[in-house]
Amino acid sequence: MAAPTGSHDRFLLWIDAVGGYWITMSDEVVIGQPTADVDVPILGDISERHARICRDGEGYLIEALRPVHVNGQPVKGRTTLCDRAMIRLGDRVELRFRRPHALSTTARLEFASGHRTQPSSDAVLLMAETCVLGPSGHSHVVCHKWPHEVVLFRRHGELYCRTQGTMEIDGVPARQRGLITRDSHIQGDRFSFSLEAI
């Protein structure tokens, strides 16, 4: 079952000079209106529980709980999501599904319509084991001015950060990697970002 609101499996990622990202680490997420049992709350003309996205092994499936179209085709039950698939929830809420990094199962939901999560974010990251932030077009979040990649990764139920060289995690110097929390601030050579628990 999807993680309830307030779960440690969700947080906001605020990247200086780049934007804000809603991150959920559950294998199964429910998208719908902002309510207590929705993992990705979107302000728009959709149902309280409109669709469910499941990470299944190396891929993703979307299940229609209310009217859903993928690439213009109505979804009856479940269908596979491929990179660049266009998802329409109801009549107007449109999302683009992306799998930018070939070696990571993490996916990104981009807002193709003017809708946003509540609280507002620029995109939703469905984080598997790793989330790559950096200057490459294959990064989950593209940070054009960063000198190199920063990787968030999960290990034994904890969240870590790694990068080249040194960084500071909550004001404490760390070399190459370190444990972070859902309220950490990370700063390094020409990069800075913060996590915020939801």
Which helices and strands occur, and which strands form pairs?
Elements: E1 10-15, E2 19-24, E3 28-32, E4 40-43, E5 51-56, E6 59-64, E7 68-70, E8 73-74, E9 78-81, E10 86-89, E11 93-98, E12 107-111, E13 116-117, E14 123-126, E15 130-134, E16 141-142, E17 150-155, E18 158-169, E19 172-180, E20 185-188, E21 191-197
Parallel strand pairs: 2-14, 3-4, 15-16
Antiparallel strand pairs: 1-2, 1-21, 3-5, 4-13, 5-6, 6-9, 7-8, 7-10, 10-11, 11-12, 12-14, 15-17, 17-18, 18-19, 18-20, 20-21
Properties at a glance:
198 residues, mainly beta, Tumour Suppressor Smad4, 15-stranded mixed beta sheet, 6-stranded mixed beta sheet, 0% helix, elongated, disordered N terminus
Task: Explain what the structure shows.
The protein is an all-beta fold and 198 residues long. The chain has a single domain (10-197), classed as Tumour Suppressor Smad4 (Sandwich). Helix content is 0%, strand content 55%. The chain has strands at 10-15, 19-24, 28-32, 40-43, 51-56, 59-64, 68-70, 73-74, 78-81, 86-89, 93-98, 107-111, 116-117, 123-126, 130-134, 141-142, 150-155, 158-169, 172-180, 185-188, 191-197. The strands form two sheets. It has a 15-stranded mixed sheet that branches. It has a six-stranded mixed sheet with strand order 9-6-5-3-4-13, with no helix packed on it. It starts with 9 loop residues before the first strand and ends with a strand. Mean pLDDT is 93; it is low at 1-7.
Taking Cα atoms only, what radius of gyration do you get, to the nearest Å? 17 Å
Low-confidence stretches: 1-7
Query: What is the count of β-strands?
Result: 21
CATH class: Mainly Beta
Principal-axis shape? elongated
CATH topology heading: Tumour Suppressor Smad4
